[in-house]
Write a structure and sequence with these properties.
Number of strands: 15
Radius of gyration: 20 Å
CATH topology of the largest domain: Rossmann fold
Number of helices: 9
CATH class of the largest domain: Alpha Beta
Shape: globular
Distance between the termini: 16 Å
Number of domains: 2
Helix content: 25-40%
Length: 339
């Protein structure tokens, strides 16, 4: 027996205050179409930067109207299927990722967009889509090789700790940047060769003193001053991958008084490469399969932040927690189906 209604978390208006711009609403149950399934979401991943950008109507490649659904990745179980669906059965555990499908108790998903998993655990949310994004970014955009020097900002975060391990497992020297001694110890335990506490160490001075040849790949999701430092410390043919800019989200546009960027890139044959997932979808199935295989074989450590967030009511607190940089690993919402 399916419920007649269920709850979801939506954006009601554009603005600057996430809590004030969102609310929980009740929506009617909807049966799946011929090629669709209904998934009961059990855990949802938190993407604070994307949530904030949606709230500010600042997602450049998609224009939203309000009200609109929030949340992207979720894991759960199939509870209903359309008549043409043959790839899964009721009760199967699946992972999903689509804007508007995460922060809700149930979702309708195209059967072609769900990914079978062993169990709907929080750890899977660190891998799909976050870890897959890191794998595609470092391999396809960064063109990672072996024997390189690779620096990763926010190295203890949900994305960063996966990128650190992928770079190390590929035979590279890995530098991890984090905001506390505790986080630095954490990334070192994952194989990081040099952890830099950017709150107590001069990152630019450390890189110039310890890595005078420069950085082959800088994988940056922070932006701001760290981005500038990475540009200044790229090696010959170095690549700076932009995977976000959390330090600047929701803040006034920074006016930087500096020379043209090519003055720092040209004589090194270096490059700056932007990366967002929608432009690299063709690489996702292979990356997801390889990443899950590594995890199931015990070759990959997956970090889920231990702070509990339960129910749709906890989403604003979880987003604020993540945006404050307090997390160690992926921030996850455990959905409460008792309400």
């Amino acid at each position: 027996m399916f419920p007649q209604t269920y709850r979801k978390f939506i954006l009601t208006q554009f603005g600057e205050d996430f809590r004030a711009c969102t609310k929980i609403v009740t929506t009617p149950w909807q049966d799946p179409g011929p090629d669709e399934v209904v998934v009961k979401n059990i855990y949802a991943g938190v993407n604070g930067v994307y949530d904030f950008n949606m709230m500010r109507n600042a997602v450049d490649y998609i224009k939203f109207t309000v009200p609109t659904d929030l949340g992207i990745e979720a894991v759960g179980r199939v509870v209903a299927m359309g008549r043409n669906v043959k790839t899964v059965k009721e009760g199967d555990a699946v992972a999903t990722w689509k804007v508007g499908s995460g922060y809700r108790d149930y979702q309708i998903a195209a059967a072609s967009r769900i990914y079978p998993i062993r169990e709907p655990s929080p750890e899977i949310l660190t891998l799909i889509p976050t870890g897959v994004s890191g794998k595609v970014g470092i391999e396809r955009v960064g063109e990672m090789k072996t024997g390189e020097t690779i620096a990763v900002s926010a190295a203890a975060g949900g994305l960063g700790h996966i990128v650190v391990q992928l770079a190390k497992q590929a035979g590279n020297h890995v530098i991890g940047l984090a905001g506390s001694d505790e986080k630095c110890a954490l990334v070192k335990s994952l194989g990081c060769d040099r952890a830099i506490n950017y709150t107590t160490e001069d990152v630019d001075a450390v890189l110039k003193a310890e890595y005078p040849r420069g950085i082959d790949i800088a994988y940056d999701s922070v932006g701001g001053r760290l981005f500038d430092i990475f540009v200044d410390n790229l090696a010959i043919r170095g690549r700076l991958v932009i995977s976000g800019y959390t330090s600047e989200v929701g803040k006034p546009l920074q006016m930087v008084n500096a020379g043209r960027p090519w003055t720092k890139l040209y004589f090194k044959s270096a490059s700056i490469r932007g990366f967002i997932n929608p432009h690299f979808q063709e690489f996702w199935p292979d990356a997801a399969e390889r990443l899950l295989t590594s995890y199931y074989n015990g070759a990959l450590t997956v970090l889920v932040d231990p702070t509990p967030f339960t129910g749709l009511e906890a989403i604003p607190d979880a987003v604020a927690y993540l945006m404050a940089g307090r997390n160690r690993g992926k921030v996850v919402i455990k959905l409460d189906h008792t309400n």
